[in-house]
Design goal:
two-stranded antiparallel ribbon; 7 strands; about 45% helix
Length: about 260
Amino acid sequence: MVTYEAEKDVISPLKTVEEEKPPEVIDPLGELVKNLFDIYQRPVEVLWDGAKFGINNVKDGFFITHADASEIILGDKCLNIFILQLWLMFIHDWSASIGYGALYGFLEPQCIHNANNRRQECENYIGRWLKEAGKQIYIAPYLNQAHWQLLVLCPGDNVVVWFCSLRKRPDAAIKGAVNSAMKSVTKTAEGKPPQHGPQWIEAKSHVQTGNYECGYYVMHWIWCIVTGGLKDDWIHWFSDRSAVTEETITTLRHKWAAYFIQMKK
């Protein structure tokens, strides 16, 4: 993600994700393997506060199943939406712990999933949450036709940053929903709605080489944004077009497993 030719006083978020070891669990993937049979017999319900993602009156959690846990253990499958949902919970808590809770908001992936069939619903959710949360940056993992992509909404700058590990363009439905939602909340210096929709910037960072890694790329980009406290200069930060390393993907799997084990206790 971060170019290694950057100035020496800039700390690479990529380096941080690989160096930081979860203190609670020495081998989180090993612990996940030990729990696999129990999860097979009884999927684990994860309780969550939907209000943190703009979803009110959430009574139930969601379930992590044997199939979900196996995806993380093996690391060779496209990731289920609940895996990214748990990752957002972790990142939400992590951003608050490092002092960025007021900077970042998060869009829940179920609410914007397959926008082509639910455009108005997606637009309403995005617009309402942008108004209510009052954050500077909104991070939105987007699952469309079994492929994970990432949007970063910056209402104050009237900018949307688009990430895709296959270099696909955003589909018309999600782009239209985001444009309409952003226009409803973005104001000019005079306090008026902008005449034009948001500027879309493509972050040309990392291209996957297989057919399953897209979810891990999105997890990686989210981690790097939040850990680095990034809020602008997207093209500068996201210019490495190589594949994400196996070491990085393994580290992401470790972090997900450690958080899941913590939530399961």
